[in-house]
Amino acid sequence: MTCTNGGCAPRGLWKRMRVWLLVAALLGGVGAGVGYYVLFVPNAEFVAEKKAIDQKQEELDRMLGTVGDPEK
Amino acid sequence: MKRKMAATLGIVAGLAVLNLASFADAGKFVAKHNGWSRATFESDAPIESIVGVTTRIDAALDFDAAKPFATAKGKISIDVAGFRTGIKMRDEHLRSKMWLDAESHPKIEFELIKVSSDASAFEPMKYVKGTAHGKLTIKGKTLDVEVPIKVGLFPVPETMRKMMPEAGTELLRISGRFKVKLSDYGVMIPSMLGMKVSDELTVRVDVTAASM
């Protein structure tokens, strides 16, 4: 038994709890990260597709000679 | 000899008439999923910023070369199902009944009624600023809108000929950026999602249409 002003607890309980709390925090962090990634971050395919679409517009401006057009 | 000359004159006159007829049609421009047009929207909400993009755009525009802005009219349609935001579930939500309802209203349409501009005609190899006046239809609801635009008429570059074999001799480029309030068009965002999706979207449309 380990006793403090707050009462007594079986020896090593606080140590075991700390380990479990750490594991839970890590799992929670990983879960939150995966959740954020799934719900908020656009997939790589989209990023590449959008980049290609934007580049095509720039390519067109280059071909038309309007790259530095102030009205752009 | 006289007969031969008369026949030749007849052919020349006929060709001239044909040429005039084709000149009168010179103001018609068409874009059909050609990949050279783009529409994007941006939603900037406290929790999330969303960008959507599509190239599935059709346009049939009439800009007579002699009086381009006074005679401008036409239609631009965007396939609702063509929008991608980079997250599959979000794309499905966007197409669902609660949002843009792609099944019942597959197109977002802009009917161009006129263009007002300080310029009276196109300038060679340059964009001209103006305002497009028209009717915007989203989810079946039509509202009058005014969109600041830049518009230009360009010869089809040689390098593009292979990529756009159907194009005539000229390209019409028209770009506009404007705000759309979703609630004005009956797209109501549940309060739960208010932090994720903004009611006001910034829309940008770039249309590249070729003369036919």
Oligomer: heterodimer
Largest interface: A-B, 23 and 28 residues
Number of helices of chain B: 3
The level of helicity of chain B is 10-25%
Stretches with pLDDT under 50, minimum 5 residues of chain A: none
Order of helices and strands of chain A: EEHH
Computed over alpha carbons, the radius of gyration of chain A is 28 Å
Proportion in helices of chain A:
55-70%
Sketch the major β-sheet of chain B: 8 strands, antiparallel, barrel
Query: What is the helix/strand order of chain B?
Result: HEEEEEHEEEHEE
Mean pLDDT of chain A: 84
Query: Given the C-alpha coordinates, what overall shape of chain A results?
Result: rod-shaped
| Strand order in the sheet with the most strands of chain A | 1-2
Give me the count of strands of chain A.
Answer: 2
> How much of the residues of chain B is beta strand, in percent?
35-45%
| N→C terminal distance of chain A | 76 Å
Q: What does the radius of gyration of chain B come to?
A: 21 Å
Q: Give me the secondary-structure category of chain A.
A: mainly alpha
- SS element count, helices of chain A: 2
Structure description:
The complex is a heterodimer of chains A (72) and B (212). Chain A has 72 residues and is mainly alpha-helical. In chain A, 68% of the residues lie in helices and 8% in strands. Chain A has two helices and two strands; from the N terminus they run E-E-H-H. Chain A has helices at residues 13-40, 44-64; strands at residues 2-4, 7-9. A two-stranded antiparallel sheet of chain A has the order 1-2. In chain A, strand 1 and strand 2 (7-9) form a beta hairpin. Chain A starts with a strand and ends in an 8-residue tail after the last helix. The mean pLDDT of chain A is 84. By secondary structure, chain B is an alpha+beta fold. Chain B contains three helices and ten strands. Chain B has helices at 2-24, 88-95, 158-161, and strands at 28-32, 38-44, 49-54, 57-62, 73-79, 107-116, 128-138, 141-155, 170-181, 200-211. Chain B has an eight-stranded antiparallel beta barrel with strand order 1-4-5-6-7-8-9-10. The longest helix of chain B is centred in the first third of the chain and has 23 residues, at 2-24. Residues 11-26 of chain B have low confidence and may be disordered. Chains A and B meet through helix 1 and helix 2 of A and strand 8 of B.
